[in-house]
Write the structure tokens for this entry.
Amino acid sequence: MGKNISDIILEPIITEKSTALSLQNKYTFRVATHASKNSIKQAFVEVFPGRKVLNIKTIKIQRGTKRTKSGLKFLSDNKKAVITVDGPRIEYFPEVS
């Protein structure tokens, strides 16, 4: 595909639900809207070597509107991926235990 890893996997999503899923070795990331499951898998394996990707589920979040004082603001489209992994846990914050 010729894209950088940082162009595909943008950032981890850290919420209560994603933290609970991480106990089951399922990790949630915000990814580029054009990224396919194969490109997400390749980028994940490059970032976290030694882990086997078992499953990838992607969710497209459609653009919405937000009411502001001066009118409506249009929010951008997003895409997130829930990646099921076999291997050691991924620590987002290793200094916190």
Observations:
- The mean pLDDT is 88.
- The first strand starts at residue 9 and ends at 12.
